[in-house]
From TrEMBL:
Swiss-Prot/TrEMBL keywords: ATP-binding, Kinase, Membrane, Nucleotide-binding, Transferase, Transmembrane, Transmembrane helix, Two-component regulatory system
Bilayer-spanning residue ranges: 7-26, 32-54
Keyword Kinase carried by entry: yes
Enzyme Commission no: 2.7.13.3
CDD domains the UniProt entry points to: PAS
Protein name: histidine kinase
Domain Histidine kinase: 229-450
One of the protein's GO biological processes: phosphorelay signal transduction system
């Protein structure tokens, strides 16, 4: 409606302006100088009026957009003017201004709501740009670091020099663990970074969490599991020793007195020898068990060199192929890219891969079309990995949390330290080992390297 009235008035003014111009030209041609003068004055007035009419509308729209840009929603245009086109235009501008103001208020309410959530969050959150300027740091982060206010990551030098180095060199999607010490306590911090872009500016969002309590609980839980397994293994060994020892003692002591040699029977002596042999055997098993525990605790530091992933997997392939001569299972390898290299202790990682490959082949022995595959590659975060996959029975959820506990095993044979030792080796390499399993579909052990 407003635009139609505007166009009608504009057309009428242009028509009158054209007629006046024609009259000026006609009167000038017939030398009617007085009439020509009046037409010229009228023409100038009409041109000035047209310019003023157009500028008034443009000025209102310009004021309107300037007010929106400056978030000034108090601007109101009078709706009681006599010109219908201006009246409709003013109403439309006021209506749009009201709608934008309402949307702006809703956005402010949401922003305040999210800000309050971030302030009340139990984890520390900080966002900073490529120059290190901190755009946001919630109170939890300042409390964890015992420093406020945080305006630049260089201020972290006053908290801990090593912590500043982590933030300065933080890459997207990285995870770090850091132990922060002060006069009062030691805090174990877990840091995770996520990239984001805001208004065309590259930012890094870092989440900081105090995991000291969780680590204590996990450590206690691990000790409970280990003690339970150790108790089970030791009791299985000690119980027959105690029982046989008690039986032998009864041969040589009766009524609190030592049995004379002449009263001993040949069968008792033979049983004594058999009992001592069993005790020796059980003692040897116990010594082997302790030796296994010592080997787990004394894993040497890795001597790292650059190793080609394809060569590493081919060596494992040769070793595993020898185990497939009598079976129907399949074992194959894949390395992508082919020039992939790992900075590792080749002997230690080879032993880990052999152990996992053997476990995989054992698990698919009774599976029709059993298959074990070893895959080396780079994930979406740029981290190198080696997957050991099989399509065997898998690992049940009940024992998933127990498989890395030392001496825990579901096999009838074995010490139960293979996976524990593998996990220890990966920790010494700065990496890790994870497992996921869908019973009777797929089980995957993943070695990740820093």
């Amino acid at each position: 409606m407003a635009s139609r009235n505007f166009y009608i008035q504009l057309i009428v003014r242009v028509i009158f302006l054209s007629l006046t111009a024609v009259a000026l030209a006609f009167s000038f041609a017939y030398k009617w100088y007085f009439t020509s003068g009046l037409c010229a004055i009228l023409l100038m007035v009409q041109v000035f009026s047209l310019i003023t009419f157009i500028n008034r509308t443009n000025r209102k729209i310009a004021y309107f957009f300037d007010a929106i840009r400056n978030e000034d929603f108090t601007l109101r245009f009078p709706e009681g003017v006599t010109i219908d086109s201006f009246q409709e235009l003013n109403r439309s501008l006021n209506r749009v201004n009201g709608l934008i103001q309402e949307v702006h208020m809703q956005l402010q309410i949401r922003e305040q709501y999210y800000q309050e959530i971030l302030k009340q969050a139990s984890i520390g959150i900080m966002t900073y740009n490529e120059k290190g300027h901190v755009l946001f740091a919630n109170p939890t982060l300042e409390q964890l670091l015992d420093y406020t206010p945080l305006n630049h990551i260089k201020q972290l030098k006053q908290v801990d020099e090593n912590l500043y180095e982590i933030f300065k060199d933080f890459q997207p999607f990285q995870r770090k663990l850091f132990q922060l010490s002060n006069e009062r306590e030691q805090t174990q911090l877990a840091l995770k970074s996520t990239p984001l872009t805001l208004d065309g500016q590259s930012l890094l969002l870092v989440v900081v969490q105090d995991i000291h309590k969780e680590l204590d609980e996990k450590e206690t839980e691990s000790w409970v599991r280990l003690i339970r397994v150790l108790t089970h293994e030791i009791m299985n060994t000690i119980t027959p020793i105690a029982s046989i020892s008690d039986s032998i003692i009864k041969y040589y002591r009766k009524g609190g007195k030592i049995t004379p040699m002449e009263e001993l029977e040949e069968s008792q002596i033979k049983n004594t020898l058999k009992g001592l042999e069993v005790i020796k055997e059980q003692g040897g098993d116990l010594m082997d068990f302790v030796q296994s525990y010592r080997s787990l605790l004394h894993v040497p530091d890795p001597s790292k060199t650059l190793v080609k992933g394809k060569d590493l997997l081919e060596k494992i392939d040769v070793l595993m192929s020898a185990r497939l001569l009598e079976g129907e299972s399949e074992f194959n390898i894949l390395c992508h890219p082919e020039d992939l290299e790992f900075y590792i202790d080749e002997k230690q990682i080879s032993q880990v891969l052999i152990n996992l490959a053997k476990n995989g082949l054992q698990s698919v022995e009774s599976t029709s079309g059993g298959k074990v595959q070893m895959v080396a590659g780079i994930d979406e975060n740029g981290s190198k990995y080696i997957d050991i996959k099989d399509n065997g029975p898998g690992i049940s959820p009940e024992v998933m949390d127990e498989i890395f506990v030392p001496f825990f095993t579901t096999k009838s044979e074995g010490t139960g330290i293979g996976l524990s030792l593998s996990k220890r080796v990966m920790q010494l390499h700065g990496g890790g080992i994870q497992v996921r399993s869908i019973p009777n579909v797929e089980t995957v052990f993943r070695l990740t390297f820093a």
